[in-house]
Structure formats: C-alpha cells, structure tokens
Amino acid sequence: MGSQLVQTLRQGVWASLTGGWYHDPDQNTFNNSCHLYLWMFLLMLPLSLHLALPPTTMALSIYCTSVTIFFITIKMVNYRLHVMFDKGDVVPPSSLSDVIQGAENKSNASDSCLAAKLSADSAALDCRDLEYNEADLEHPSPQLTTADNSSSGIDVHSHPDENDPPDLNVDADGFLRIPSMFRKYGPGGRTHVRGLSMDSGKDAVLIADRSQNKQTTMTSSKSDLEAKEGQIPNESNFVEFVSLLESINSTRGASGIENPPEEVTNEEDRDSIDESSETSTQEKPSRKLYYKLKLFPGKWVNILYDRLALLALLDRNQDVVENIAVVFLAFLVAFLGFILLNHGCFKDIWVFQFCVVIASCQYSLLKVRKAFSASFHSPLDVFQGHNQIVAYSRAAYFCIFCGLIWILEQMLRRKDLPVSTVYGITIVLADALKFLRDILVGITYCFPITFLVGLFPQINTFMIYLLEQIDIHFFGGTAATGLHSAVYSIFRSLTALSLLYGFCFGALKEPWDEQHTPALFSGFCGLLVVLSYHLSGQSSDPTVLMSLIKSKLMPTLVDSEEEGEDSEDIKDPLPEKLMNSVKEILLSDLVVCSIAYILTFAITSSTVFLSLKVVLYALAGTVGFVTHYLVPQLRKHHPWLWISHPVLKSNEYSQFEPRDDAQLMWFERLYVGLLCFEKYVVYPAIILSALTNDGFSLSHRKNCDVLLMTVAGMKLLRASFCNPSFQFVTLIFTIVFFEFDCSRASETFLLDFFIMSIVFHKLSDLLHKLHFIMVYIAPWQIAWGSAFHAFAQPFAVPHSAMLLLQTFVTTLFYTPLSPFLGTFIPPGCDDNNLNSIFYEYLTRSLQHSLCGDLMLGRWGNYSSGDCFILASDYLNAFVHLIEIGNGLVTFQLRGLEFRGTYCQQREVEAITEGVEEDDACCCCEPGHLPHVLSCNAAFNLRWLAWEVTTTKYLLEGYSISENNAATMLQVYDLRKLLITYYLKSIIYYLIHSLKLQTWIKDSSITEALVSYTKWHHIERDPAVFSVKIDEDYVHCLQGVTRASFCNVYLEWIQYCANKMEEPVDCDEDSPLVTLCYALSVLGRRSLGTASHNMSNSLESFLYGFNTLFKGDFRIATKDEWVFTDMDLLQKVVAPGVRMSLKLHQDHFTCLEETEEPAILYEAISNYKTSLVICHESDPAWRKAVLSSRDTLLTLRHMVDDGTDEYKIIMLYKRHLSFKVIKINKECVRGLWAGQQQELVFLRNRNPERGSIQNSKQALRNMINSSCDQPLGYPMYVSPLTTSYMGTHKQLRSIWGGPLSLDSIRTWLFSKWVRKDNLTSCNSGVNMEDVDCAGGSSSLSHNPNSITSQSLSLYQARPNRTSHANRQHAAGLVHQIFSTGDAHVCSTNAIYDKFKGMVHPSY
C-alpha cells in the first residue's frame, strides 16, 4: 500500500505538476539523467535570460531562437532514428571478431555496460560452431552484440551508398530462415529463435536443429509484440523484431532464461545472467543491432540502439507535419511566455512560478508519461488509451491564455478607452480589462494544479465546446457532433452573417423615414428569413451532404466504391435513405425560400408592422401557452402531477397490445398546426416587425449596432425555426421586464430579446441543476444505513454552500456539476452481445419516426440535450437528443441489458409501478378524489428527477419468443422426428437446386457413390445410426440400407421431383435417389461427428445440432466426395439443418398435417421465402433484421451463471409498446461526470461501489450503466443518427410532403386534367347527381346516380392508377355519357369498362 501511494504521488501528482518529468526507478540512469537535464534546461533558460538581460527584443530573439533550434534538433534526430528503425537498414558485420570488439568498445564507453564478457575460448568455439552456410554468405547477417538497453554506439564508416536492405531467406512454408548466428543455444544442442510467419502475420517460434539444420514452427503468444506500437513486421525490420523478442524473453525471470551449452557458458557468464534477471526491464541484457544512419551521400554511421530505448527516452511523432506542429508550439510557448516576462506581468517569486509553467508546457511536448497522462492530464483519454493530443493540450492552453493576456496588455496601454453604459450599468472598460487580465494571469499561475485535477479537457474537446457555444448563443446554431462539425457550423454561420451584414450596412448607411422602408432593407429582411430558414433545416454534420454532392458530381467514383465494398452482402440502406431525405430538403428549400423571400420583401416594404406589435405579442403568448404548456400537460401521464390519468388520451391508451400504427388524434393535428403557425408566421412576423420599427433609429447608429442587429435577427429566427418550445416564456418576460420593471434600461426590443434568450438558457440549466441537487440530497430520499447517516447529515450543510457556488459556476460555463472532467465521452459498447441487434433495429425505427413523433407532441416538450428512457417488457433504451433542427433530430440510443442487475430491476419496477392506487396522506389513508392522486403520491412524484410522459408509445420492433430445445428433444421419438425432417429438407433443397442435373451427371460424384447404388450395402456406424433416432434403421441388419431409406423417403423424393418443371428420373434405381441417399448418410454422419459420436446423449445431440446449425461441418474421409462442389454443403445440407428446426417446432401445433407430403412441401416452400433461419453470428441475420424481415428463427446456445441451455429464438416484427420517461438532463451529466471522477481520477475499481447502487429518485443505476465503457456497460451504443420529418407517414399526410418543382407541377397537372376532362359530365347527367369537381356522388332516384357512384369510388383512390390510365378513364367517361342514352350504361357495364384499367394492386 505504501509503495503504491509513493508511486501514485511520483508518477501521478509530481509528473502532472512538472508536465511529465519525474524520477522513474525502473528506468536506467541515462534516461533519468537526460529527463532531468532537459527539464532543468527548459526551466533555467528563460529564468536566467530574464534576470541577466534587459527586457528587449534581443533577449526575446535569443530565447526563441535557442528553444526553436533545440526542439528542431531533438525532433529531427528522433524522427530520423525512427525512420531508420522502420526501414531496418542493418549493417552487415565483417567478421565475428569485429562484433566482439565492438561490444567491448561500447561497454567501455557506456556507464551501463554488461557485466558478462565473452572469453577467448568461448569466442573461438562460437567461431567454430557459428559457420555460415551458402545462403548466409550470400546474404550476410546483421552485426550483433550483447549490451545494456541504454548502451549505444556509433561506428563511422565511409562506404558506398547501400540503400537495399539485406534479403532474408524464406522457406517453402513462408517462414523466414534466420541465420545461425541469430540463434540462441538451448539444452541439447537446439537453438530457439522467435520469428513471424510472412503469410499470416502470426507470432511463431522457429526451432532450428544445429546438427541437421532443420526448421519447424510452433505457436506462441503475441503479447511480446505489444511494445512495437502497431508496426507490421516485414523483411526489412524483421531482424529488429527478432532482437526485441530475444530481449523480452531474456527479461521474464530466471525461470524463462535458457542456459547455453556447457561448452560455451562458463561460471562467470551464468552468474551474470542470474544477476541480470533480478534487475529491471531496462537494465537486462539484450541483443543489439547496428543500424545504418545515412548522413550524406556516401557517409553513414552505425547506431547501436533500439526502438524501445528510444521510446523510453523521448516520445515519437509519427510524421513530419506533427513534428512541425510540435516545434511551432514550442516556439509559440517561448515567444508568448517571454514577451509577458518582458512586459512585467509577473513579479518577484511569481517569475519563477511562471518559468515552471513554461518548462512544464515545453517538456510535455517532448515526453509525456503514457501510463498516467490520461489520469492526471486529461482524464477523457483513458477511454482510448494514450492519445497524442494530450502532449499538445497543455502547450495549447498556455498559448491561448498568454495570447489573451498579451492582447489585454496591448489594449490597456491605450489611454482613450471609453466608458460605456449598457442597460443602465456604467462599465469602465479599463477596469474591466484589467480585472479580466488578472483572472487570466491567476489561472496561468495555477496551471500545474489545474492539470493535476483535470479541470481542462483535451484541447480538441475544448475547441468543440467553444465553437458550439458560440454558434448556439450568437448565431442560433443547434449542436456540434465533432470538431469537423463545429468548424463547419461556425463557418457557414459566419458566411451567412457576412452576407447579411453587407446588405444591412448598405440599407442603414444613410438615415431614412419610418414611413418609407428602403428596398435594400426589405431585401435584407427577405435574405435574413431565407438564410435562417435554410440553415435551421441543415444538420451540423456535413457528412451526408458531402456524400450527396459527391454522388452527383462524381457518380462513377461512388459506383466503383460500392462495387469494392461487395454491396450484395453488406450494403446498408440507411445511408441512401439519409441522402434521399437531404435531397428532398434541399429541393423543398429551393421553392420555400423563393416564396418566403417574395412575401417578406412585399410585407416589409409596406407599413403593416407599425401598428401590429401588441397584436403579435398577444398572439405569440397565447399560441405558445396553448401549444407548449396546456396541450403537453393535458397529454402527460399525470397532468400537473395531480391528475391520475391523461386528459387527452391516445387511441392506444386502453389497448393491451396495439397491433397497428398509432392513430393520428385530433389534438395532434391541432398541435402540429399551432406549432407550424408559431414557427413560420408568428415569430418571423415579430422579428421582422422589430427590424422594421428599429430600422429608423438604427440608421443613425454606428456599425457595431448594425452588426448586433444582424446577429440578433439571425439568432432569433434560427432558434424560432428550430425549436420554439420556450420562446414564448422568453418573449413574455422580455416584454414585462423591459416595459414595466426596467423601461429606462431597455435598448432595442431586438437586442433585449436576444440577450434574454441567452439569459433564459442559463436559467433553465440552473433550475435543472438545482432540481437535481435537491432531489438527490433530500433527507427522506436517502436509504439510511445506520445512525451515523442521521448524525452526519447536518454536518453536510457547509458543503452545500460550496455545492451552490459550484452550481452557479458550472451553469455559467455550461459544464456538468462535477468540475473535474469534460463532457465528451467516446462511444463504445459490448460488441459480443448478440442482443445488441435488437437495439440497432430500434435505432433504425427511431430514425424513421422520431422527428415526426416529436413534432406531434408524443414525447412532450423537448430541447437539445434532453434525455429519455424507453422502457418495455425486455427492452430498456436510453435516448439522448443531440441536435434539434427545423425538421430534423439527431439522437443517440444506448441499449441496456435485457436481464439487468438487481439494482436495475428495482429502478425498472419504480418506472413501471403505478401510483394511482396510493391512498395515503401523510401518516393515514383517507383515500383520494376520483381521477386525482393522493397527497403522498403527488408529493413523491414532485421529488423525482424523472417523469413519465407517455405510457403507450408505439415503435416497430421485434418481439422475442423462446423455447427450451432440451424440452422439445427430451424424448427419443422427438429426436427421430427432427432427423426425419432434417433428411426431408435435404431432399427438398437438393431437388430444387439449379445444379441438380450437373451433380447427377458428374462422373467424379458418380464414381464416389458406387457403393450407395448397391442394395445390399449397409451403413453400420453405431456412433451415427441408431434405432432410437433413425426412421430407416433396420434392427436386424444393425444399420441403414438403400432399401430401408427408399421405404421411408422414396414417396417424398418422388413428390418433390414431380413438382419440378423439368422431369427428373426418380425411380428406386435412379441417380437422384442415390444422391439423396448419400446426402442423408453424410448429413447424419456429420451430426454424429459434431456430437462427438454420442448422439444418444441429449447434451451431445444438442451440441452437435447447434454446430451444424452454425454451418460447422466436420466431413469424414468416406464423405469427401462432397467437396466436389461446396454448394452441396452450403446450399443443400446447411439449409436442411435449419429448416428441420422450424418443421420440428410446427410439429407441436399441427401433428397430422406435417405428415402429408403436400402440406409439408407447401410449408417448406413458404418458409423458404417468408422466414429467415440462420445463426445469430451469420451476417445474414443482421442483414435480415436491418432489412425489416417479418419473421426470423435461430438457435442460441446460452451459458449464464453455470447454466448451459439451448434456446429456440423466434422473432416476430410487430409494434412494441414503450413507456417514455423524461430524465433531468443535468442529472445525467452530473452522474456521468461523477463516474468519471470516481473511476478515472480516484481509481475506484470496486464493482459494487455505492455510486452504481439503485436510487429510484434519480435512476442512478440505469443512467450510470448506460454510459460508455469503462464507466458503464451498455449492450449497444448507436452512432449519431439523424431523423427527418419527411419519413414520418402521418406527419407527411398532414402537410403533404416537401415542396418541390416536380410535386407542384404534378399537383397542378392532376388538378387541371381532372377539371378539364370531367366538365363534359354536364352533357349526359344531372349535376345534382354527379359532383365532377369533388369526385363524389349522391344517391338519388336517377339511374345515373348509381353510375356516378361507381365513378366516385374509382376516383376516390387515384394514387393506385397510373397517369395514363387516369386520362384514358376520363375520356371513357366522356364517351359513355356523351351518347345521350345514359340509361343503357348500367353499373356492371361501367365496372367492366373500368376494371381493366385499374392498377393490379387495386
């Protein structure tokens, strides 16, 4: 315990304070000394220059130049050495004496030389034993030496340029032949050398016999290659791998060291090896190689070093760009740090502290302790192992803060800083800048402590967060899903802002009258609405848009990529579906934006907004109150947490298992109508009114006000288009506050509304945080474990004050309650869990319907970042809304375990249990009023961090039914029935195969099946055939014959053959029967082999059948004829195994019917097309689920808690009913951040820690288990998926689908054709009887009314007929009615005329 604490303090705390430097006792003296001198140099250089030289540009130049040259030298040498190791240019030795002499020279020159020395006798013996063969002479081996890990040597030569590495011999099996001098002697005169297979890349051991010079292979572990950092061994660096593996083998302890032969090893060598085995890894003897480092053409040096020692000394930068970035960052740290020292920002002892910060930032660019950097520098990196960005984060943050301090210093030097008044508050700009500078300086001082506790995330995460918040609060953006997404979002917002600012500045450049709006300003307003609408409907992730553009501009390239991906098996329909949705949106925006621009230009050109302010405000408040408060409350499971059931109930509320799609209700239509009216009419009118009314005053302002107006207008419009759920509250508060409370402090309405939208966003986060804290720490919510809890509760009051301060700070910066960690967690899940496919299909279903359901109000009010739980009988999914746009929603689904832990089950029970039957009120049970909750139930619901919003939410998914296979096959007769169905299925697939004639006529198959043509041939394998399970078993013969097989299966063979279009000979002596008989024997023998020849045992039988079901066939020697064509196994026997399982399952429901050949044949034919039967690990299973197949069947082997079971799993696609639970999003963020702090920072590895125990008021276990690994253990984590409203059928039926030029042309053409062709109805029929325009009829005494009714029935469903049929039908109507004798046209006659033109699907 003490050593672990010291190690944590040394490698964790101290390394974080210094930027990565600490004394590592496991490293040798050379490495530790280099690290110490590096850090001291980086610390003393700026300190000494600052104290010795005056603060001039010369001192700055000297320091920056020194640091730049220093880093360039180190990085260049490091990069060249790694390139040298990668290429593997090994110097061939001239003789063995040179090798020994070189090792002695390097040992004398180094302070860590090897104690063991080779004696002259042993060297002479080595020279006699290690003789080169001819291949070794042709390709000389690299020079070897025995030295310490830190030893290095340089042998300078002047030789011709040798660029080609030495070729290595490869034997017939694809293994490299290692020269004899690489081999390590073992007992018995054998040598052991580690190598790699060139054809498979697997680790292997090459064992060479000294006497016979033979090489064989045996399997070994890959763990010794972990230090190679993902390199792929090849011929060029193979020698280095051998050396490294020898070094690793020699460091595994005394038990792992192989003693050399007695004639080679003396007592001194043996003692030295025993001593070295007790030393550290870095100080153990290992074989070294000379590598050729070319300096100039014709000049190169020999380097005695290896990659492991170099990596222990300095970190590696992979490419040239990364090295340039490191050098630039080091220069920037030196420049900004020293320029602040010159400006006098730091005094006295703080100069030394600032130099420590500079040294830590620069040292982190050279060496970062990988094992602890993830825990103490940026805890987020622990999920992905060591992340190279960690090395840049500290230096990048230093540059950001010092750059801001430098800018503030330059601004403070100005004497004419203004004094401004904003909202009635006087702001002295000089004092404000000085206060901000002091804060930044203080944060810079605290860099070591800040990075110790992990207050700063990775620099890329910080940039994502910063750009996302700027885009959301200033430009009305939605969210960012990554760094590319954040850069793309801010770039498009700035582009739109630049364009709008130009128009606005041109319109307001000169004053103008309120009664006459300039045309340029009207154009600006129209362009503002158009750009805001377009940007609000586009996702922040440009991946799908780029794919669409690529498919249009470079279709040939896209087609070639799809062909290369083998699209037949793995093509995913989702990308094409997303591209089609984006294409629809772009085409719709083209039409909508054109119309919106014309309307906006026309309206703003008039004076309509001058007298409509009050009306618009009242309309926005009323519509917002009804849409976002009244209707959602009435639809909740417990409205206002007082009523026991919803007031506005869905049609499925009272149904037990709904089978159809959710029915569209009248209040959902009302909700969508009010929402669209609010988004597209009310708020754009309010913002345009504010722009118009403030235009006159803003035309007299400065450019800054014009920019503010443009930013505010774009932000408010985009926010209103995306999600106006809380806009009406912000609007009402803005009007009340600035009109009545602080009317004198008001600026313009547009700016007031803009500021209040940001303030209300922060207040909403604050309320969520306070609600979570109060719910989580409420005394009556705590499970008191002892009297100590009641005693300790009052002492937590002082901590509550700190928690409150922390809440305000985290709200200001939009971070989780736990300040130690960042907010981004990379995705991860349990890929080995077969049940994850159900959550993947659930994600696809949500992608199809989530956006539409949200717009219909089925999930209640929502906003970006909200979290929901979908709970059903066995599926519990966590849904996180990432981005809310105009007609799109980006979300992520996390699937929880089917059979959760005890804590998860308790929380699921808390969700599913009802509170309607609770009659308690305080300590008594007086009951409650009808349709109203009791006092206790209402009180408890208010102290939960979650709320049930919907109880019957329908989503398409798969219901699972499972049967125990052991129960269905317990009896021998049932196993015999399964074998019978197995053989009949093989016969069916054989006869229906397209290759049947080829197989029957194949001479090789015919020759192999000669024995099966003889009637007296008997199959007598007692391990395969048995009277208990084989229907055709002959007891007296103790086996199966052709006669017995025909007696049972000939009728089935002939029935299947007669069903074929081409006639096939199927008599008893036909080749077809012979092939069927042979395949039946092969199928049963394969089952017996897979069952380990113990088919009589139920467990063995199930194991063997499951093996065949997976497609694993072990073919006996006598059945190798089947390899003539593998389709015999893949297309005949394997499907037969799977089909037999379904037929056997149907046997329990219809016993008599399956015995009839006709019924059995029809069943197999139907199942072949409608049912997917395969193993869950088969790619066809996933493809079938994602393709939304109706029914699937599989056999699953389940091993859980010591139970070994085989389950027959049946999947049926149907509508699943879920409960939708909305969770406080700050509860989720706080618990996830707390888990990171506990697991990563505090390193609590207790699997039963208290932080994951059940907490019903916060659903703590379900939330923490849904977090990504290693914090949680989700079964499935989906990628970020975008749902579009255009894919929702019911919502599409309301608004008619996206507008486009084609849809408008089609609609107009259909209306014009219908009106033009049906006007002729007046000539032969009464208009009172036929309503040609509407296509309906009224039944009267006129005989023609019946005719018109038949016509109306046809016209009521025009979508089912083609356009040509519609025209022909209209002409036929004209022809019939224009004859003047309408009485002749009876109903049957007209029906006969029309039935030939109706679409077949009619």
Automatic annotation (TrEMBL):
TM spans (from-to): 36-53, 59-77, 324-343, 349-368, 389-408, 420-436, 443-466, 486-507, 519-536, 585-602, 614-631, 716-738, 770-791, 803-825
Record has Membrane as a keyword: yes
Residue stretches making up the Pecanex C-terminal domain: 1065-1290
Compositionally biased residues, Acidic residues: 260-277
Domain of life: Eukaryota
InterPro entries, per database record: Pecanex, Pecanex_C
CC per GO annotation: membrane
Pfam entry (one): Pecanex_C
Annotated signal peptide: none
Record carries keyword Transmembrane helix: yes
Keywords, ordered alphabetically: Membrane, Transmembrane, Transmembrane helix
Biased composition regions of type Polar residues, renumbered to the chain: 142-153, 213-222
Localization, UniProt: Membrane
Region entry Disordered, spans: 136-172, 210-230, 252-281
Membrane topology value: Multi-pass membrane protein
PANTHER family, sorted: PECANEX, PECANEX-LIKE PROTEIN 2
Annotated family: Belongs to the pecanex family.
Protein name in UniProt: Pecanex-like protein
Organism: Oncorhynchus tshawytscha (Chinook salmon)
Lineage: Eukaryota, Metazoa, Chordata, Craniata, Vertebrata
